[in-house]
Amino acid sequence: MAEEKKPKKERVKKKYPMPEQPPEERIHNFNEVPIGQTEDVIKKEAQRCLQCKPSEKRKLCYDGCPVGIDIPAFIKKIQEDDLEGAIGIIKRYNNLPAVCGRVCPYENQCEGNCVVGKIKDSEPVAIGRMERFLADWERARGVKAPELPPRKDKKVAVVGSGPAGLTVAADLAKKGYQVTLFEALHSPGGVLVYGIPEFRLPKAIVRAEVSYIETLGVKLVTDAVVGKSISMQELSEQNDAIFVATGAGLPKWMNIPGENLNGILSANEFLTRANLMKSYMFPDADTPNRIGKKVATIGGGNVAMDCARTSLRLGAEESWIIYRRTETELPARIEEVHHAMQEGVKFQFLTAPVKYEGDETGYVKKMECCRMKLGEPDASGRRRPLVCPGENFELDVDTVLIAIGQSPNPIVPQTTPEIKTTKWGTIVVDDWQRTSMKGVFAAGDIATGDATVILAMGGGKRAAEAMDRYLSENEDWPAPETWEQ
Ligand code: FAD
Ligand code: SF4
Ligand code: SF4
What we know:
Elements: H1 23-26, H2 39-46, H3 71-79, H4 83-93, H5 97-103, H6 110-113, H7 127-141, E1 155-159, H8 163-174, E2 178-182, H9 191-194, H10 203-215, E3 219-221, H11 232-238, E4 241-244, E5 250-251, E6 264-266, H12 267-275, E7 294-298, H13 302-313, E8 318-322, H14 334-342, E9 346-348, E10 351-358, E11 364-377, E12 383-387, E13 393-396, E14 399-402, E15 406-407, H15 411-415, E16 440-442, H16 445-448, H17 453-473, H18 481-484
Parallel strand pairs: 1-2, 1-4, 2-3, 4-16, 6-14, 7-8, 7-14, 8-9
Antiparallel strand pairs: 5-15, 10-11, 11-12, 11-13
Helix pairs in contact: 2-3, 3-4, 4-7, 5-7, 8-17, 12-13
The chain binds flavin-adenine dinucleotide and iron/sulfur cluster (2 copies).
One iron/sulfur cluster is lined by residues 64-65, 67, 69, 71, 94, 100, 104, 106, 109-110, 127-128, 131, 454.
């Protein structure tokens, strides 16, 4: 008798949806927008993974992860109902999984390489959401610190507690080094606490991941501005190696007429007031954040989306994004643009401000804009915006937020002439993240210019590996040319 054919299992083409707060509700609060998925849904999502075998011909999910998570292995553990095993695999590579599961631009990283996403009409496996779920699942049960090796007698100073600094601090502490982390602000986390809003990345989650790193034995010193309250020279006398990850927090301006009017703020100031100083809780918190009725945010990245969405939550009636290219070139994460649109942020593409006009009290009331068109691609590969002469127009505004990028924080390089910088102020590093000062390594935005959380962490991983090699092999490890001079 012919064997009965098993019915073919229907392949699920799309990601299982993430429940979210409805837009009309969430623009009145600062609670997280995506609510999170259930264990059941995550297990079904894991079944979408094909468990691809390594191949030289094609890139796979893990090739797109700068910290090198063994993605097929952790998904296999979920398929086998072993959630503890799954988060254990992630944590071998990534010390901040709850952060990455929320803000990593996975569509351009791991998920961008996922084989399932290349199949017609299919979406990639939701790797980021699984990572988020597992990190939250573990936190709810109480995170356990891993077993640590015996303490080494070598000391390391880490300057800056953003994702790059936290990565190096954790990786070196796990190897037994004595690590002290210096942070200029009163709260650790870098942009994760002062930049990215609560509704995208709750501060309690950052605090929990920082606490985990402290349980590894990392000593945290806040309110310590290296280069002011303690010099790099002093740090190098007290430590065997230093890692610099001071980020890019210096706002860029357009330098156009009227830019110093009241009501025109850098994104950095606006978001720091909202996040770190909780202006949205004023008067219960000390810091107010003046917000007008018509807010224009200049720029099209994650920072711009955060400003526009925060403005709505603080009571703006209209919140505009003014961007000089088109929707296709927006550098913000797709999800952030989608959420901003859902919440009623309006987009004025192919537009750039040329000057601002104030009222009799010195507050901005109007902005003159020029229309743009797209020319040939520039060095970044994106089409260059060109001004359309004679097509200027005016917009009524009472608050303008400038979100056109940040420059590297200058204090450490300015006070440490041994550290070479580029003309943009970023610290020069080699492939091992070594700077021109012996024993000093750097990564993250201070070395790359403003980039992403996961690229900062990837740089941190490389630096931690190099620092371990430097500290254990020291003189035997060939120094960069500049160290030999
Ligand atoms: P940072 O996070 O900038 O941390 C540097 C730390 O060093 C800060 O805490 C600073 O106070 C401290 N410091 C500076 N100088 C000194 C000193 N002299 N002494 C001691 N400490 C010092 N990326 C994403 O991947 N996804 C997103 O959704 C996203 N959204 C963003 C939204 C906003 C509003 C912003 C501003 C950035 C966003 N980014 C996002 C970019 C990302 O946050 C950064 O690329 C990343 O945080 C860089 O990490 P870092 O460790 O190099 O520096
Ligand atoms: Fe993907 Fe980012 Fe997680 Fe790596 S850290 S697996 S790139 S979401
Ligand atoms: Fe699974 Fe996609 Fe990675 Fe293949 S590429 S192992 S389908 S996550």
